[in-house]
Amino acid sequence: MIVPQGAETAPQGVLETLAETLGDMTPEVRKAASYVLENPNDVGVSSIREIADAAKVKPNTFVRMARTVGFGGYEDFREPFRQEIRRGGISFPDRARWLQSLARGGKLSKLYADMAASAIRNIEETFAAASDQTMKAAADAIVAARRTFVLGVGVNSLNARNFTYLADMAVDTIEAIPRPGSVAIDDLARATSGDVLIAITCKPYRSEVVEAVELARAQGLTIIAISDSPASPIVIASDHAFIVTADTPQFFPSSVSTIALLEALMAFVIADAEPDVISNIERFHERRHALGIYAAEE
């Protein structure tokens, strides 16, 4: 689909056209288009030189990109984005109109719209129930701890291990439990009052997580609980608690808000840590680039 020159079009239509034609672009033009798709809010406020510098391409690349999708040049291309800002739009797409449009295509389209709406709502409600102060307090505890254990079973095992994987790029005091071939209460046997336990479980609450939290509490660990209710057995008497919303139209509870919360907590841990933590992350990625683990950018 090519956008007709002079036609009235919304930013979302432009972004959809870019996405559809991405595979037909040259590597440099694709790099420019990818930047726009990932940073649409920059288009309406950035000059061609500014956005080219940010995307690490030449300004003329953005002219070629604009012409690829039917515009006369970059100024024509960015005009819909500028109009959206003048109308008071702050992000693309317009969520309300977008969600309504998804639901018009029959039963599966309605399910798709319901899934999208519930994911967005879950994240909004989860972050509304927390605050930067509660997040910082939990991060402070993790940074000060001798060791931090991250406990999740079932789907939350993957969430706990993802948090630990990211943390390992910066610090080596965080580990996921239960370890392979072990059970959580055994992994906590040598934990002390200088340690932290991050425990994750939602309805129906997993008994091994509840049992591990009770043991950790008796051993004096600081408990950071992530669950779906203030009445959750792991939240009651915890030191730091985060209530996630996990509603979904499907049978299984959603993990979207739990993942988003853990990512935010990790960001606070890194922000709260010593300056050499950033150096650790940089060295980690430099080593991976040097070993060829990452594909070279075109």
Automatic annotation (TrEMBL):
InterPro entries (UniProt xref): Homeodomain-like_sf, HTH_RpiR, RpiR-like, RpiR-like_SIS, SIS_dom, SIS_dom_sf, WH-like_DNA-bd_sf
CDD domains in the cross-refs: SIS_RpiR
Pfam families, per the entry: HTH_6 (PF01418), SIS (PF01380)
The HTH rpiR-type domain, residue ranges: 12-88
Name of the featured protein: MurR/RpiR family transcriptional regulator
Residue ranges of domain SIS in the record: 138-275
Sorted UniProt keywords: DNA-binding, Transcription, Transcription regulation
